[in-house]
Amino acid sequence: MCGIAGRILEQPGLIGVDLVALMQAQAHRGSDSTGFALYGEPRQNSYVVRGVASDRRALDQTLDGFLQTLRAHDSDLIEDPSWDDTTQRHVSLRMIIGELDVRTWLAEADLQEGLEIQSVGRSLEIVKDLGISQDVSLKHNITDFVGSHGIANARMATESRVSPTASHPFWARPFPDIAIVHNGQLTNYFGLKARLQRQGYTFLTENDSELIAVWISDQLSRGLTLEEALHSSVGELDGVFTYIISTPTQIGMAKDRWAIKPLAVFAHEQEMATATEEQAVRKLYTDEVPISNLDGPGYSTTWDVLPAGRA
C-alpha cells in the first residue's frame, strides 16, 4: 500500500519541493511515516552523516560517543552537528565528518547504544520521520533542500514496527550514497537476509526494504552495473514488489514477475518524475503530458542524472 516516488531535475534546484508534492499527493497510501533520500552537491573530502538518537535527554552523551568513535578511526567532526528542536523524544541529527574507511568505522559506530546511522554519503542525505509528508517537511525543512535528484516514500506499516528508524528510504549500508524505497513484500526475506549476514552485512531493522538496498549494493560491489543488478533482482527477490533505487548518478526501478505494484513515469530529456500513482506525477505537470505506466512483468530500467554544470 505504500506510495513511492522519484525525481530528477534538469539542473540542481529545490528538489525537496517536488518530492514533498509527490508525497503529499500519495499521503493516503501511508501515514505512519514519510521519508526522503536527497542528493545535494557532492563533497570532496568529507561525508554527510544522518542519524537518529533515541533519547533527547541523553543527546550530549550520544554525541560524545559518536565523536570518540570517529577519532578512533582518525577522523573528526568538520562542522558542529545540528539537530531538530522539537519536543519529541527521538532526535534527528546531521553531522559532517572527515575522510575515513566507512565500512570499518560503521561496524563500530553501529554498536553505540542510542544512535542509529541512517545514511552516509558525499551527496546523499536520508531524512525520515513519523507522520505525513507535510509534517516531516515542516520539521526538517525538506522544501529548502537544493539538489539534483531524490526518492521518497509514504509508509503504511504492515509487519515491522512504526518508528523513524524502520521507515523508508533505506540506506544501502555500508555503501555510501545509495538508497531505496519499496512498495510490496518479499517472501524470501529471511533466507536472503541470513545469506547476507553470513557475508558480514549488518541489518538494523526487520523491514524487507532494507534487504533490497543491501542486496543491490552487494551486487554492485561484485562489479555489476546498476542496470544488471536491477535485472538480476527480478529473479532473486521473490514476492510482489516495485522499488526505486538512487545513486549519485542514476535512479533505477524494478518490479516483480507479476507486475502487481504500479509505477507511473514522465521522462523528458534530462528530467524525470515517477510515482506509484499517476495523479501524483501530474501534480508536477499541470499541462497535458504523456505519462507511461511501467507495468511490464519483471520490468526494470534506469534514468541518468545530468552532472552539475552541464545542459
Low-confidence stretches: none
Rounded Rg = 18 Å
Average pLDDT, rounded to a whole number, is 90
Task: Report the structural category.
Answer: alpha+beta
What is the fold named in CATH at topology level of the largest domain? Answer: Glutamine Phosphoribosylpyrophosphate, subunit 1, domain 1
Count of distinct structural domains:
2
Beginning-to-end CA distance, first to last residue: 37 Å
Helical fraction: 25-40%
CATH architecture of the largest domain: 4-Layer Sandwich
Provide the β-strand percentage band: 25-35%
CATH evolutionary superfamily of the largest domain: Aminohydrolase, N-terminal nucleophile (Ntn) domain
CATH class of the largest domain: Alpha Beta
Q: What best-fitting shape do the alpha-carbon axes yield?
A: globular
Strand order of the largest sheet: 7-2-8-1-14-13-15
Tally of helical runs: 8
Major pleated sheet: 7 strands, antiparallel
The count of β-strands is 16
What string, H for helix and E for strand, traces the elements in order? EHEEHEEHEEHEEEHHHEEEEHEE
Layout of strands and helices, then pairs:
Elements: E1 3-13, H1 15-24, E2 33-39, E3 46-53, H2 59-72, E4 82-83, E5 91-98, H3 102-109, E6 115-121, E7 124-130, H4 133-140, E8 147-155, E9 170-171, E10 179-186, H5 189-198, H6 208-221, H7 226-236, E11 239-246, E12 250-255, E13 264-268, E14 271-275, H8 278-281, E15 292-293, E16 300-304
Helix pairs in contact: 5-6, 6-7
